[in-house]
Write a structure and sequence with these properties.
Blueprint lengths: L10 E7 L7 E8 L8 H15 L5 E7 L3 H9 L3 E14 L5 E12 L7
Parallel strand pairs: 2-3
Antiparallel strand pairs: 1-2, 3-5, 4-5
The chain binds coenzyme A (COA).
Length: 120
């Protein structure tokens, strides 16, 4: 996602089908350029991805995970009308301590079903 007539990248949205395919579950994720935070661009982009997922890919369920400390991320999921379904304790790490031990993070699991989706 770029600004028109500009090489500035606003952000990336990831959308991929989870295994097994017959469950028709897709996962959404995102990372935006901090210069463009707070404008609703991530919300707008993700709304269009949900629309694409439910209408074009016939997704049954769209899911996402957000670090519990990352309020901007889970607020975005709630703006998309996704439901918090889980609190996963110490399920991921991105960094290790200087002596090589994982620094574990908790995540929230969010989801929305095709039957709950109300459109853009
Ligand atoms: C998660 C992330 C994409 C959220 O970015 P964001 O700027 O908060 O999201 P949006 O672009 O949708 O902007 C929403 C904000 O703009 C405001 N806004 C202004 N105009 C808006 C509009 N037309 N529509 C929606 N929101 C609007 C909202 O009120 C909200 O502000 P608030 O949080 O103070 O209430 C961003 O923080 C990010 O990329 N983080 C790093 C990567 C990351 O954490 N990824 C997730 C891994 S779990």
């Amino acid at each position: 996602m770029c600004l028109k007539n500009s090489k500035k990248m606003i952000g990336h949205v990831y959308f991929a089908q989870s295994e097994p395919p017959q469950f028709r579950t897709w996962e959404i994720g995102y990372v935006f350029n901090p210069k463009f935070y707070g404008n609703g661009y991530a919300t707008e982009a993700c709304k269009r991805i949900l629309q694409y997922g439910f209408q074009n890919e016939k997704a049954h369920r769209i899911v996402a995970e957000a670090n519990v400390k990352n309020q901007a991320s889970w607020k975005l999921l709630e703006r998309l009308s996704m439901r918090r379904e889980a609190h996963m304790f110490q399920n991921v790490f991105f960094k290790k301590t200087s002596d090589g031990k994982p620094i574990w993070n908790d995540s929230y699991g969010y989801a929305i079903l095709s039957t709950e989706y109300k459109g853009v």
